[in-house]
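**Backbone description:**
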Amino acid sequence: MEHVFAVLAATGLGVGGIDFLIASGTSFLLIFAAEIGDKSQLVCMVMAARHRAFPVMVGSALAFVVLNTLAVVFGAALANWIPEAVIYAIVAVLFLIFGIQAMRAEEEPDRECTSPPSGRGIFLATFALIFVAEFGDKTQLAVVGLSSTSIPLAVWAGATTALILTSALGIWAGCTVLQRIPIKLLHRVSGMFFIILGLFAAFQTWQAVS
């Protein structure tokens, strides 16, 4: 470790630069590990399997940028900004709507992920799903905690990079692995996935108000 510090110091980073790299690297590793297999990554996977990848990537990336910015700027007060029951209720409604739409969808003539983006509809849908699902989630609360004890900008950079990377991995999986599934079955699987998440969020809403 001393050798690493010596190399970093030799590059002219200085103590402040080293602290920034350590804080951002720690945030990246913690958030990346926490998000692997989490619902936001699964949402990106399912969305990319049914729609074009580019607007899904941009929508998820922007959602995480906004969420982490709010977490760093407003800190712990963010968790109490909107009542927990309201957040869960919005998540439930969104996921149920998307689930029902997916279950009712017919076969699409074009499902190629490398096609040009179709417009802002997919981008807005992805942004809304990720933003509402992750608002007040454990990942955002982790960013709040890390930024209160470390360099906020470094935490933001590390956490945002980790979240965008996990989203990209989910989109890649959606554009490769899930593309081998027949489109009709894919609609059913993705619809059930969203409906299950919606029902779970509805249960959380009931718990929060009871």
